[in-house]
Amino acid sequence: MPPHAEDTARRSTTASAERLLNLLIALLDRESGYTREQLRAIVPGYDRAGNQDAFERMFERDKAHLRSLGYPVEEIPDDDPWASDAQLTPRYRVPRGSYRLPQVRFSAEESAVLAVAADAWNDAAQDRLARRALDKLEPALSTEAAPGKDLQPTVAVADPAFEPLLSAVLAHRTVRFDYVDRTGAFTQRTVQPWGVGSRYGAWYLAGWDTDRNAERTFRLSRIISEVAVTRETFDPPRDFSMGGRLAGMVRQPPHLRVIVFVREGAGQLLRRIAAPALSPAWQAPEGFDAVALAVHDTESAAEHVCAAGPDARVPREPLPGTGDDVARGECAPSADDPSTSEGAPSAEDIATQNAVADAVSRRLRDARAFQARMPGVDVRWGKQRRHGAVKASTEQHLARLLHIVRHVYAHQGAELEETARHFGITDAELVNDLQTLFVCGRPGHMPDQLIDASWDDGHIYLGNAQELSEPVRLTVPEASALLMGLQTLQAVPGGDSRVVRSAMQKVATAADALPLADALAAPDADAAAEPRDSALVTRLRDAIKNGRRVRLQYLVASRDEVTERHVDPVRMIFSDGQQYVRGWCLQANAPRTFRTDRIVGCEDAGEAEVHPRMESEVRSSIQPAKRRPVQAVVVTDRRGRWIVEHYHAKRFVEVSVPSAPGESEGSDAAPSGANSQPIPGSRARAARGPRPLPEYVAAEVDFPTLDALSSLVTRHAGHVGVVSPPEAVAAVEQWLNSNCPEPTPGRP
What we know:
Blueprint: H1 3-29, E1 34-35, H2 36-42, H3 52-68, E2 74-76, E3 91-93, H4 108-118, H5 124-136, E4 151-154, H6 162-171, E5 173-180, E6 186-199, E7 202-209, E8 214-219, E9 228-233, H7 242-247, E10 256-263, H8 268-272, E11 274-276, E12 288-295, H9 298-307, E13 312-313, H10 324-327, H11 347-372, H12 389-410, E14 414-415, H13 416-423, H14 427-438, E15 452-454, E16 459-463, H15 466-469, H16 476-490, H17 497-510, H18 514-520, H19 535-546, E17 548-556, E18 561-575, E19 578-585, E20 590-595, E21 599-607, H20 612-615, E22 630-637, H21 642-646, E23 651-654, E24 696-703, H22 706-715, E25 720-724, H23 726-737
Parallel strand pairs: 4-18
Antiparallel strand pairs: 1-3, 2-3, 5-6, 5-9, 6-7, 7-8, 10-12, 10-13, 11-12, 14-16, 15-16, 17-18, 17-21, 18-19, 19-20, 22-24, 22-25, 23-24
């Protein structure tokens, strides 16, 4: 945005915030309230409305802003005893005391976890709400607390269904959406949403499925339509706990074992989750190693193999004389034979191998078919809109003005520079805010009615704004954002669930919405059932606590190689069900983040150093700050739409994809198979039904390497294709065509 455009937008936001503040003061000023026409006459800024309709729209928006900040704007009957029924018009006010923060105090430990929870959101809208909630709770926080630096959870939402579902949960409104289950079956669902939450890196909705008359849990990434929020309301069960539901989602140990041949020196990520195959029945061809992959089902096994591209293959049969003979019991190895610790494969093992090999072949076939349709895609970006940007900036500015009043009233004479640092703004921005406060006040706007603000000597004093200085209760959306950040802490190994549950109860009390805490918090459980750190994470935590440097053997998945790094660790990050360690990498001479399940080895490497750039970090991010080298335009169907959010697409647009060979024009048929079931493609809104998402979307996404992009295409076979640039298309097509049929056992 050009500088003059930025200045214009800033002045517009300031003017809107000034009008809103004057409106709020007027609504607080008189218990009997004001009519609309009276407010139009006494509130500066409404004179800019060109006509009555423009004023009505502006006033309705302003009421919504104030209510979203926790000030309940009431509409009451006119109290004019001489007016006729036809002349009576409603009056508006904010009842005194209706917005005050309930009596609540947070301990030092609770204040610390609140600071961590408010810093957790990667979603901009939820981040604003959580931080606003923490600002409102400032008078109730312990002054002894300091945000923990050794642990930072992050909450990321890559599902478009999240926002409308959360709103429906809070409003107790029934929703409708289209859903694809694990088998690929497509259904339309009508659900009473009880709660949303994340577990193991995925977001879930729990509620009552009215069509099936049963309680159900839905994974948000499988919702393939817009969420239609109806006017139908319901009462959620009193004993429901989303935290309890999430805590009960225990990962079952894998029960299937698949043998995969991995090219020597390659497939490091696959090797990381596998173990060497010791049975001589599965002898890898020359140039390959045999590994055993433990999985839950054949489709997940196929996904891992496809992600490795041409470096991994699934054999169908063991060496001659070891499969069928063993299945018939003719050549079973001796239990005492030390050379066959795994034994020969059974008929069930061979059936699993064949099922996985078939799934791999089908996925690759679907990926090739989808990529073959990409040359006909015409991507026209058009103008990218930022929905809600003006609303967010206006509310954010007004919220900051109100927070400044509350903070300065509690710290009269505070230094200007220190106050600016407290709010994360420049001295000039703080002075501009104080100047805005200086021209706001009660109706009439005479000198004795305006807010008294002074800062000439570098110390800030405020007066004549007592009604704005009182702590304000949390709104339900603000409390929910903070509570969901706290909910994430319940799943972090090594966290103190007792403190988190106590903080959640007090946050809900601050919003006068105790059922929120009951719905989101996990119930008290045996401490033995709480998540525990792995030995590696414990070692890393000890290194952070004791100021030690570590030597890491780290798997870089995008380059398929294991590297050695010397790192001074600073904090642990918990995001999307994964744990990361963030610290100063001596090789890169910069901050870096490492995923713990890709750390192959970890050793003590001496005393760590203090790095000022790490100490100055306010927030931790698992996203690299620099621009990634591979910039590609990918096309996804409705089931792959999460990629747009997950990979932080810079822009996206709906596109049309030509039909595959053999399909009629406009057909919505998809390749057959469990991985690609047909989905109804009409975007018309059905009666009482949800609106489908765009069938295909093109998105501009950055990737670290061409191999990482190719791996995405094969991992999500049939749902992702690449349109440009030409070198990326060529790399993906070569990757797809290099996936040869599985090799014959015992031969290259």
